[in-house]
């Protein structure tokens, strides 16, 4: 009875590549007719006898020059894929932080506008322009722009600004408790002198010597701080009244007072504010609110 034997048949490309070509994959087996007992060529008997060892061999790494198994491809790509995922995560985190924080250098103003609320992005009004001494409107020609701010309690000092120049302030270190007075040339707008007079523990005669000899047309800017009136006498009140004040006669202990007058005015000055010290209405404990006054003063044509 005719027998059969197995013969190993190499792939066609193996014959072309020659004996040095790598053997990729197991040789194919073909049944051929053989007289006599069946035999095996090309593979050891132990390889055919153990299917488990045959399966184990198929999972080994391929020889050099052969296609890499899918498992090895996945392992080689795992590292770069993790790095790419980390870079993308960091980039997205930075992008979201830039949009939410909106800080300087965010680099995404257009994206921030898309995330901004309609009220802020559409209806927000532009910042109002400020003019000399912070006035909301410019003064007419031949007028002097000014701002006078009284002290707040006994903590924050007063300010006197004229034509964008700070004449008196805590920063300039020329203010003090009592009355802070700046004398200005009514024609040129130049500062003549600025001094603070302590009306609680000072000498009122120093104040009288300062305002008695004023020349016609001299502008007088006054801002109170802490207590403006304890040492004030009748002569002092009359001198300020002659400068155009209508509230100086009622000025009392710890009142807030701002005033702009001039030597030789015919009528009462329109530039004056006064708030009484009252425990029922005081903004601060023991002191009324601070006062702020601004405006435009016409220059004097001549000065005596």
Describe this structure in words.
This protein has 304 residues and is of the alpha+beta class. The protein has 8 helices and 11 strands. The strands form 3 sheets. A 5-stranded antiparallel sheet has the order 7-6-8-9-10, covered by helices on one side. It has a 4-stranded antiparallel sheet with strand order 5-4-3-11, with no helix packed on it. A hairpin with a 5-residue loop joins strand 6 and strand 7. The N and C termini lie far apart (151 Å). The N terminus is likely disordered.
In short:
With 304 residues, the protein is of the alpha+beta class. The protein has helices spanning 12-17, 45-49, 51-58, 70-101, 109-115, 118-121, 204-211, 234-242; strands spanning 3-9, 28-34, 143-149, 159-162, 165-168, 178-185, 191-197, 218-225, 256-262, 272-275, 292-298.
Task: Pick out its properties.
single chain; 304 residues; alpha+beta; 5-stranded antiparallel sheet; 4-stranded antiparallel sheet; 23% strand; elongated; disordered N terminus; transmembrane helix; signal; FAM3; membrane
Strand content: 15-25%
Q: What series of H and E elements makes up the topology?
A: EHEHHHHHEEEEEHEHEEE
DSSP summary: helix tally: 8
Contiguous runs where pLDDT drops below 50 for at least 5 residues: 1-10, 12-23, 25-62, 104-108
Strand arrangement, major sheet:
7-6-8-9-10
Q: Biggest β-sheet, characterized?
A: 5 strands, antiparallel
Helix content: 25-40%
If you average the pLDDT, what whole number results? 77
Shape: elongated
Distance between the termini: 151 Å
Estimated radius of gyration: 49 Å
Q: What structural class do you assign from the helix and strand content?
A: alpha+beta
User: What is the total tally of β strands?
Assistant: 11
